[in-house]
Amino acid sequence: MLKVTATMGADVKLRDVVDHARRVESLGYDTLSVAEAVHDGMLSAMAALGATTRLRVSQGVLVAFARSPMLAAQGAWDLQDYSKGRFQLGLGTQVKGNIVGRFGMPWSAPAARLRDYVNAVRACFDTFQNGTKLDFHSESYTLNRMQPFFNPGPLEAGPPSILLGAVGPLMTRTVGEVGDAIQTHPTNSEARYLKAVTRPRLEEGSRLAGRDVRIEMTAGPLIATGATRAEVEEELTAARESLVFTLSTPAYWPALEYHGWREVGEKLRDCTREGRWQDMNALVTDEIMRTFVPSGTYDEIPEILLSMYDGVAERILFPVPKDRKNDDLARKAIERLQAS
């Protein structure tokens, strides 16, 4: 059985979040993952939670280093209270250029700093929920002041869980150390890679931290599906273009390397440096596409995904139909994934 998560593109404006969230809930999704790129992830999550009654809303992911841990904790606490327990705080690091140049915030070793950040947020949660004195000290953050006036107090639903984004080995182990859940990147969501590489790294991180937990995994492959074969082919074309762009960045090569295709990433990177954009599509071969992009019509795709991800991940990202005429087909596919 797989629980099913919908995404919300960065192009969805705040005024359109309500309609999108209601549609996602009507289609039977378990969770909506709200991006933070163009719009504020906390505001979008609040709009989605206010428009729904059953749907869990997560963030995929909030830019942690652009905010203090206390602000992230306060916002998450409010959303957990507002939704009566349907919120999940999603955190990620972004890249140095954006943190320094776009947000005007300092940069430091991201895995170590994210570990400190999550532990600082959890210290805030402990203070809110249990009245524990706030006295958190780490290399990256010090939090030691919480007057009663500023403490929001305990929640019946308890603190929200924390999801983290990760690709590389250090960050993946960090998720195992301090996180509750992970959402994998489309370039590194191939099922065999998740089973052979990602899951063991999560378990290693948990052991290092003395935790006896299984990190909830949301697999995020690019999925090409539609009502007809022609629609599937259209989605495959879009998926290829997405992979061509992202796989030109070395940070997204781990699964390529696992399958012995590092040279493809190197050639894509060289093409971007030399402006040879017209040569890039051909580098992402049909074999790579078959490996990285599950594809099939709505009638076919549930069994394809279950054969790959059941037992590997607890949840999977499944695309919201671009055309509402396909909503009934998508709803049936989601039900089959959930009922297996």
Task: Please describe what this structure looks like.
Strand 9 (181-184), helix 7 (191-208) and strand 10 (216-219) form a beta-alpha-beta unit. The radius of gyration is 20 Å and the shape is globular. It has 340 residues and is of the alpha/beta class. The relative contact order is 0.12. The strands form two sheets. Strands 1-2-3-5-8-9-10-11 form an eight-stranded parallel beta barrel, surrounded by five helices. Strands 6-7 form a two-stranded antiparallel ribbon. It has helices at 14-26, 41-50, 69-82, 96-102, 110-130, 169-178, 191-208, 229-246, 254-258, 262-274, 286-292, 301-309, 327-339, and strands at 3-8, 31-34, 56-59, 62-63, 87-92, 136-137, 142-143, 162-166, 181-184, 216-219, 315-317. The model has no long low-confidence stretch (mean pLDDT 97). Helix 12 packs parallel to helix 13 (327-339). It starts with a strand and ends with a helix. It has one domain (3-228, 292-339): TIM Barrel (Alpha-Beta Barrel). The chain is built from 13 helices and eleven strands.
